[in-house]
């Protein structure tokens, strides 16, 4: 009752309004709350965004610089490789120039050697020329002497020409008589002889000698030989004309002279006998005359 009366007195002042949260804070903690923070200035709001934008621009610039540096490095590497290639080329050219210079030096040395050889050959040629001149003079003198000797001999032969002509005429007449007496007999192959074999016998009855020519006979074993037989009615058996061999073509020219004198030679024949010959025909006949 007393409190109600106090509040209603005209002299009493109204109490200030208390925040419920504040009143609750005082009630709970028993102390006053901290004062409220003053409002932040405007630049603190846009400063982080400005820093982020600067960082982004810096990153873009750094990336661009990195790309430019890479391209620059690639170009520099390419230039280095080009320089290395040029250096290699220059070294190769230098080596070639050194080799060419060495070849030129060798050629110069060879030219010098050739010049020396030419000089030496010139000296030798002069010596040989002098020697040849002397030999030529000697040969000329000898030829002149021989010419004089041949002239003398020629004159002597001219003097003997008449006697020689007479002797030649005499010999010619004798040769003609002898040629008329020569006998040529062809020979043909037998059934046992080679089909292409041929032969001919030349007989001189005055000299009692002849020449047998055969072609295309077969080659024989070393133990065999061809033997020529001469048939004369005056003898009961063929007369031995000797043995002979043929060359690789089956040809031969065989001169023969029998041990007996044949006045009426009628026939020639060739047989195959043992090496050394036989006293009478025992082998096969390969050539006979008509």
Describe this structure in words.
It is a single chain. By secondary structure, this protein is α+β, with helices and mostly antiparallel strands. 53% of the residues lie in helices and 18% in strands. It contains 3 helices and 8 strands. An 8-stranded antiparallel sheet has the order 5-4-7-8-1-2-3-6, covered by helices on one side. Strand 1 and strand 2 form a beta hairpin. It starts with a helix and ends with a strand.
Please specify the SSE layout and strand pairing:
Elements: H1 2-7, H2 20-29, H3 43-181, E1 183-189, E2 198-204, E3 209-215, E4 224-231, E5 239-244, E6 252-256, E7 267-274, E8 285-289
Antiparallel strand pairs: 1-2, 1-8, 2-3, 3-6, 4-5, 4-7, 7-8
Mean pLDDT, as a whole number? 83
CATH topology of the domain at 182-289: Immunoglobulin-like
Class from secondary-structure proportions: alpha+beta
Q: What is the overall silhouette? A: elongated
């Amino acid at each position: 009752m007393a409190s109600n009366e106090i509040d209603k007195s005209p002299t009493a002042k109204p109490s200030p309004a208390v925040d419920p949260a504040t009143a609750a804070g005082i009630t709970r903690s028993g102390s006053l709350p901290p004062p409220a923070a003053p409002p932040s200035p405007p630049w603190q709001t846009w400063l982080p965004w400005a820093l982020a934008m600067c960082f982004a621009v810096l990153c873009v610039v750094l990336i661009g610089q990195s790309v430019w540096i890479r391209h620059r490095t690639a170009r520099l590497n390419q230039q280095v490789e080009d320089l290395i290639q040029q250096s290699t080329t220059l070294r190769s050219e230098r080596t070639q120039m050194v080799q060419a210079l060495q070849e030129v030096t060798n050629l110069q040395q060879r030219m010098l050697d050739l010049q020396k050889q030419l000089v030496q050959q010139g000296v030798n040629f002069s010596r040989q020329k002098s020697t040849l001149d002397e030999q030529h003079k000697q040969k000329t003198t000898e030829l002149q002497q021989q010419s004089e000797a041949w002239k003398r001999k020629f004159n002597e032969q001219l003097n003997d020409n008449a006697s020689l002509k007479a002797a030649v005429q005499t010999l010619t007449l004798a040769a003609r008589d002898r040629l008329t007496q020569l006998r040529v007999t062809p020979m043909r192959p037998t059934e046992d002889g080679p089909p292409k074999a041929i032969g001919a016998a030349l007989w001189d009855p005055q000299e009692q000698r002849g020449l047998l020519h055969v072609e295309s006979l077969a080659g024989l074993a070393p133990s065999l030989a061809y033997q020529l037989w001469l048939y004369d009615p005056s003898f009961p058996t063929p007369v031995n004309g000797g043995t002979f061999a043929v060359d690789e073509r089956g040809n031969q020219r065989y001169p023969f002279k029998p041990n007996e004198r044949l006045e009426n030679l009628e026939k020639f024949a060739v047989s195959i006998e043992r090496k050394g010959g036989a006293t009478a025909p025992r082998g096969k006949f390969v050539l006979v005359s008509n």
